[in-house]
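Hey, resending since the last one bounced:
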Amino acid sequence: MDYETIKADAFGRSLHGIGLNLLVRDVPAQCAFLQTVFGLKSHQVTPDFAIVSYGDQVFQLHSDGTYHSNPLLGLLPENPPRGGGIEIRLYDSDPDIAAGKAEAAGGMILQAPADKPHGLRETYILCENGYAWVASRET
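The C-alpha cells again:
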C-alpha cells in the first residue's frame, strides 16, 4: 500500500484488527520526534493528520482540532501528560540509540536503557505530548 498517495476512504477501509490513533498538539513536530528518535516514517503529514509506519504496522496522528466534535476532546488534560497509563512499545528499536537521541529531540528519559528479567532491554521515553514510548530489543 502506498501511504503517500492513498485516499482517506481507501485507507480507512484498509484498517483491521487493533488501531492506534494519538491526539497531539502538533502533528509535524510529533512526526519529527518519532523519526529522529525511533526512525519511524510519516506519510501525508499535514498540520491535522499523519499516517505513521513502523515496519509493516501503521498508526495515525491527529491534531486536537480534528476532534472538535469527538467526545474524547473534552477529556484531554490542558497540561501534560496526556497519555498517562499507556505504553507504546517499539519492539524492533534499539533502546540505547533511542535514549541517546531522545532529549535533543524534545523527549524526556523516564527510564534509562536496562536489561529486564523478561528478556528485553528497554528504555522509557516521554514525548512532549505525554506518551510513553518504550524502545525494546531482545537481550
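The chain has one domain: 8-138.

Sorry for the duplicate.
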